[in-house]
Amino acid sequence: MNNNENNHSIHEFDYSLICEYFSSINRQGPGSDICTRQALSFIAPLASQARIADLGCGTGSSAIILAQETQAEIVALDLFPDFLDRLTCRAVGKEVSERIQTIVGSMDALPFEKESFDIIWSEGAIYNIGFERGLREWHQYIKPGGYVAVSEVSWLTDERPEEIEQFWLDAYTEIDSIGNKIAQIQQNGYRLVATFVLPDECWTENYYVPQRRAQEIFLSRYPNNDTAKDFINNQRREAELYSKYKAYYGYVFYIAQKTA
Ligand code: SAH
């Protein structure tokens, strides 16, 4: 095996570990069913035969709510087949599986027809392509007058302690103020409809708390695996930083309508 192949396989191993860890919890990012419903409440009633794409859907919490709350066809797309398998199991349990189609794919190369969706939805996932690039590229797949609804980590204050500023600039350089995010929405062919900050429990009860149990199980399954230990340490550090600095940043839902 040459070096490149070796790196490649280590990388794939990392992904499969991370995937296994997150498959066991219902949300892979901060959020809640209540916030999914709240974001949807700002969007006018959908026409019959409406279609919604949920990009970076993970194990499907938002896709299931969207299927329950609307009559739309839901197209749920994620890079990882394991997450989609879990989504399908959950959707069968909630009796909405016949209206949810899953697609293994990448949000930066969408296999969709132009103007084919009433809403493009994406919770805690647009950062993978970058907020502005996502808004710009996804625009073409939305029907005229359709919507985009995304949640994105954002600064809640003008200034913040160095430690948290540095952490986020390392993790995601596009983290920005709500004002600047709204300006990007407006510069890319959308009209802002609503925005709200996700409450604390979206991070704690729905994201970090379920991870604690997953971490114990994971470490007991891979006691001698450095990749697994590093990964868990990173997740724990992120949770600690959140509890220390949550006054300065949060996840923010942005709901906007296509204008042009
Ligand atoms: N929306 C889910 C998951 C958020 S975590 C929730 O709120 O629970 C981010 C998700 O984006 C993960 O499921 C990850 O597999 C997916 N992802 C990462 N890069 C992606 C890409 N390029 N295209 C599609 N999905 C991607």
Summarize the entry for a quick read.
This protein has 260 residues and is an alpha/beta fold. It has helices at 3-23, 33-41, 61-69, 81-93, 131-138, 162-171, 178-187, 200-221, 226-245; strands at residues 51-55, 73-78, 100-104, 117-122, 142-155, 176-177, 190-197, 249-258.
Give the key terms:
8 strands, binds S-adenosyl-L-homocysteine, disordered N terminus, 260 residues, 8-stranded mixed β-sheet, alpha/beta, Rossmann fold
What does this 3D model show about the protein?
The protein has helices at residues 3-23, 33-41, 61-69, 81-93, 131-138, 162-171, 178-187, 200-221, 226-245; strands spanning 51-55, 73-78, 100-104, 117-122, 142-155, 176-177, 190-197, 249-258. The protein has 260 residues and is of the alpha/beta class. It has a domain at 30-199 and 248-258: Rossmann fold (3-Layer(aba) Sandwich), CATH 3.40.50. Strands 1, 2, 3, 4, 5, 6, 7 and 8 form an 8-stranded mixed sheet that branches. Helix 2 packs across helix 3 (61-69) and helix 8 (200-221) runs antiparallel to helix 9 (226-245). S-adenosyl-L-homocysteine binds at residues 27-29, 31, 56-58, 61-62, 77-80, 83, 106-108, 123-125, 128.
CATH fold name of the domain at 30-199 and 248-258, please?
Rossmann fold
In terms of DSSP E residues, the strand content is 15-25%
What general outline do the C-alpha atoms trace?
Answer: globular
**CATH 4th-level superfamily of the domain at 30-199 and 248-258:** Vaccinia Virus protein VP39
| Low-confidence residue ranges | 1-7
Sketch the topology as an H/E string, one letter per element: HHEHEHEEHEHEHEHHE
CATH class value of the domain at 30-199 and 248-258: Alpha Beta
Structural class: alpha/beta
Strand segment count: 8
What Rg do the Cα atoms give? 18 Å
- What is the helix tally? 9
Proportion of helical residues? 40-55%
